[in-house]
Design brief:
The structure is a single chain. This protein is an alpha+beta fold. The protein has a single domain, classed as STM4215-like (2-Layer Sandwich), CATH 3.30.2000. Helix content is 18%, strand content 38%. It has helices at 3-13, 70-84, and strands spanning 28-29, 40-50, 56-66, 88-92, 100-107, 112-116, 122-133. Strands 1, 2, 3, 4, 5, 6 and 7 form a 7-stranded mixed β-sheet that branches.
Amino acid sequence: MSSPVAVARLLNSLGIVTYDEAGASGDCFTGPLPPEPDLAVSIRQYGGSGDIKFAQDMPRIQVRVRAATSGEALAKATEIYNALHALSYTVLNPGGDAEAYLIECRALDLPGDIGADENGRPEFSTNYEITQIGNSTYREA
């Protein structure tokens, strides 16, 4: 199960991003930001932790937004923040290959300006911790 894919699919279903899993089109990616389009969103997992007793994993993801202007990048990052922060008790990608029972999604910070890319386009970033049911041989369900 991939948290970035599940989150990208959720944001796509809400009409916030356009996620093309093949990466040929759209504005949302689960890897590095490509050079185009100007308005683009990257969702990547960067670590996390798991409960030692219960089958709960807490992956962390970073949502990075780039746009032609700071206002546009901040608006998209804020729209994503409003969709994800405090989301709880829901199934992401129900029935799909990235299905995850989400207990809670918590923003670790507010959308923040992280500077410009090599082409001078502003970027904003927000980090999230997702608590979800995980699979485990040795932990209680």
